[in-house]
Amino acid sequence: MVSLSYSSVMPKEAPPACLILGEQANLLRISFSDVEGLISHRVSAKVFNEVVADLGDNEGVSMYPKAVSMATLSSKHSRHTTPTAAHHVMDTVSKHLPKNGDSAVVVVVCLRKHVFACGVAVARAFPTYTLKTRDVTTRDVTVCFITLTTRPLLQSKISRF
Known about the structure:
alpha/beta, 6-stranded mixed β-sheet, 6 strands, 27% strand, disordered C terminus
């Protein structure tokens, strides 16, 4: 069983498992300092920057075995896929989130207007029903969002009518 929580603030303690995902263009816009508290005890800034620069479209890489992973979502969209690629988010989380530990953090790097769709897609990666009859342990998964703006904030005067 999985307990999901959503946050726009990174957790204070580093989790045993961490997945950072987003479109390649969005991942290029974040810096190591944005996720430093989660991964700095296992991954250096140099390794993080090299992985982000070398990561291709729709690809995943483990930066630290069974603990820290980074994955990109496909940037190709058609009339049958959404701009958030929510169906890819579910598959990516299922494949690349490390299975160890009783807690994990999924960091989603996306535009603000895609936060809800991405959050729901992450939830779909953890089904509520399983056919397994053994005792299921509870795993706490925190989904953190790093939102990006499409344009800089407007610094103009606001006129009153």
